Structure formats: structure tokens, C-alpha cells
Hints:
13 helices, alpha+beta, elongated, 16 strands, five-stranded antiparallel beta sheet, seven-stranded mixed beta sheet
Amino acid sequence: MDKEQMKQLVIQQVDRDRDAILALGKEIYQHPETGYREVRTTETLAKALEELGLPVDRNIAYTGCRGYANKGKKGPKIAVMGELDSVVCHNHPDCDPTTGAMHACGHNIQVSVMYGVAAALIHSGVMEQLDGSVDFMAVPAEEYIELDYRKSLRDEGKIRFYAGKAELAYRGAYDDVDMCMMAHNFPIEADGYKCAPMNTGNGFIGKKTHFLGKQSHAGAAPWDGVNALNMATIAINSMHAQRETFKDKDCVRIHQIINRGGDIVNAVPDDVELETTVRARNLTALKDANDKVNRCIRGAAIAMGGSATVEDSPGQMPLAADKTMAEIFKGNAVRFYPEEKILPCMESTASFDIGDLSLFMPVLHCITSGVEGGLHSKDYRVIDLEDAFITPVKMLACTVIDLLADGASEAARVKKNFKPEMTKDEYIQLLLSLEQNLTYKD
């Protein structure tokens, strides 16, 4: 059977599996769970993969699961991935009324597409024709939220890293994987596009800062206090003043929220918590921006005569999409969309934890459509089931065939062309080096 025959079989099979793919996406959409809480979603995916006849490992990174196709077969191994977790969006009409959890980033679509690729390759009989193996990984905790909860898991020894793919890498889940791929929906139809073979993405460092001052009566004796909220305000304004020092090409982004601003309005705040994210397009710029932010925090503490403690945690790394895999994907995308509807590269300053994997292995992170409204917002919704769920399955399944058919020669070409920025072990050491606790005092 040649590649074209295989592709025709899987495309036809996807159409037959359409209802099952959409039903899975709806089930997960209706029961959103945030990172490292995806217990129900993990079980839903694990059972769906087992019904395809795949052996499945559960709780591969506290939550998450992994199914194995062609296990033990000689040749390259591809990991087809989807993300399990939701965001929190209390204003979305479909959110969980208790937790506010909501699939407003399309992760329910991602894992349904992953399942659809597995179903198409297995039900069509094409999987056994391929010269390599495919693992189907439902990965947890891509969204970098609820850090206090994740810290409690780390303190209990249940996880080591806050981001799911970092945790999987730390546990050795990718040690036998040659390359990985997944699809991510974005509202790109507003710009006239249906898909993109690749995109950019910033890396980031997550920061939690406690500003500590001295409480006093805000009306009767404010001079006896040290205002921690003013420290936070000075730090934020200083960060804004740094913006002209960042190079445009580095796409630096700094954003903050105040999680705790004081106890009562008529007492000088003495304990204020600031959460900050520092993003940049490359590691050098990321470290430079983070150093400047720490200087701003230190300066604020000195200016007000208080103290500040900073906890830095590695978030996600800059995304370097593999151009060879993107080229192969585009060759399949033109089967379904006219070339003028295919965006060569979607420029984004958002962050994706598949960027971590791109430091040491080839990754395909294709952008698909079928949704509108801002991601992570109350306006997010699916507007086209074919573009969101079905066509991405066809494009990814055909890409797997290209990579693993004919003696897996295309997979060999991907591996030959790939130049890793570092080894997996060096990547883990990088994450550890970005973890730091700092204290600044007057």
C-alpha cells in the first residue's frame, strides 16, 4: 500500500469516526478541569484509547495518560499529543458554576483531535503498515495557573514542575520519542486563514513576590507604618519604565496581578502579594528582562524601607517549531485548504509548553481554526466543527503517514535536519537554574 492509498483510507475513516470525535470533545467540554486536577478527563481519554485496543498508562504526570500503537516496532517513535486542562473564566456562559473552569483555549478540541488520529490510523488498518510507532499522549497542566495548588503538590512530592510537559520530560516520558506533534486552535479566520503549519511563542518565568512592611492605623498614624502596597505599586511602575530598554525583536511582555493588597482599608497594608509573568522570545532576553524586574522589586523595597521576597519558577520555554515537520504538514494542508488560506507562520507572543520540548526534539505545533473570540475570554466559542475538530485530524493523520511510511524516510530527514539547542538533561538543569528565592531589604 503506497502513501496516497493510506491517506485516502484514513481520510475516509475520519469521516466515519466523526460522531465519536465530536462526542468526545463535547463530553470533555462539559466537564472542564484545571491543571493537575484532570482526573475525570484523564479517565475519559484513557478509556477511549483502550476501546481502540491500545495499551494505556494512566497518571503519567500525576494526571494524564498515554496510549501505545505499534509498541515495540522498529523505527522512529512519534508522540501525538493533546492537552487536558482548562482555564478559569467565570464570565463564560459555559463555565463550571462552582469552579469557573472553562475550556476557553480549546484543549478539549486538542485531545479529541489526538484521539481522532489514533482512531483513524487504527480503524483503517494503516497503523500496521507504518514503519515506526506512535504514542498518543494526553498531557496535563499546560495552562500556568493556580500556582498555590501546584506548589502544594510539589511540596508533597507529587510533582516537581508546575508545567505538564516539563514534568513529563523530568519523568523521562520523552526519552524514547523522536518527535512530537499537536494542533492548537486559534481564531485566525478573522484574518482570512484556515491553518498555519507553525507559530512562534514566547518563553516565560513566573514570579511571586511578597512585599512586607509594617501595619499601622491608616488615618491616625500612617507615619508609623511601612506601606507594602506602595512598594508593589512602585515596583509595577518601575517595570513599566523598563519597557524602552527591551528590544522590539525580543517581544518582551511583563504583566502582573495583585493577589493580596492588604487586610482592611483603614490599616496600612503590611503584607502584599504580587504575581508577575515575564515573557520573551528567546532565553537571553528572558533572563535579561527577569533581572531587570528583580531590580525593580529590590528598588521598591529600598525606597519604602520594607522588604520583598521573590520566588522565581520556570514557566515555559520559547517555541522553536521544526521547519521540516511544518513543511510536511503544509503538504497535507493544501489537500484541504487553498494555499492562500494557509498562513506560513502565526506570529504569537503567547506561551506554549511544547516550546520546552522544542529545545531538544523536533516539534510540530500547527495552528488550526474553527473558533472565534479571544482565547481565555468569555467570547470564545467554536463556530465550525469541521475546521475545529475534523480537518485537523485528517491533516495530522496524513502527516504521520508521510513521516512513517516508506521506511520512515521522512522521519529520518526530520531528525537529520534538526539541530537541538540543548540536550534533555541540559534542559532540566536550565529549569532548575531558573528556580530561585531572593530577599531584598532596605
